Amino acid sequence: ISVGISSINYSQLLEQEQARYQPRHAVSVDITFAKEPNWQHILELFESIDPQTGVILEDVILPHRDAMMAVTPEYWTKEVVERFPLTQGRYFTIKEIKRGEKVALVGKERMEDVIIEGSEQYLMAGRDKYKVIGIIGVKGKKTRAIDYQVVIPMTSLPA
After folding, report:
1. DSSP assignment of 109-146, as one string?
2. Angle 38-136-143 from CA coordinates, rounded to 5°
């Protein structure tokens, strides 16, 4: 019983922590397609959304080395909502989203997945190389909900 209660408490704490990083007025929606969609089909769903609106896809799975990696693609139309605290670097910009640039924010516990080339850091997702522009986390604190996050512009997803 002790293990079960401890597990339930952990799950509740994790849910509360994750809710802290959701935008105000966020709504969760499941989408079902009649046939296998590609990323272009998914982006087309959001072409005419309100300029003050954003889209966050949860737990999109991409190949990484010999395994799979969950990433969180985000799409903002006018102003980027910086949902996560950064220990260093910056959030991506509207220009980077519109251009589909391969940039990423990486949780501080995912840094072992980052490769260094010269003075730049990169994360591989499939055959694509994403430039790491920010490290997600809270200095001096472990935050289960964000330390393992990988956030990329939705427009940079592999074709």
Report:
1. GGGGGEEEETTEEEEEETTEEEEEEEEESBTTB--TTT
2. 110
**Alpha carbons 18 and 46: distance in angstroms, whole number:** 24
Spatial CA neighbour of 132 closest among 86, 65, 95, 80: 86
**How many angstroms separate the CA atoms of 152 and 139, rounded?**
22
Token pair 């939705």 is found at 154
- How far apart are the C-alpha atoms of 56 and 76, rounded to whole Å? 9
Closest CA to 111 of 121, 101, 119: 121
d(CA 156, CA 100): 4
One-letter amino acid at 107 equals G
pLDDT tens profile 27-73: 666 666 677 767 777 777 777 777 667 787 777 888 887 888 888 88
Report the C-alpha gap between 79 and 154 in whole angstroms: 15
The model's pTM? 0.78
- How far apart CA 61 and CA 72 sit, in angstroms, is 9
* DSSP 8-state assignment for residue 54: E
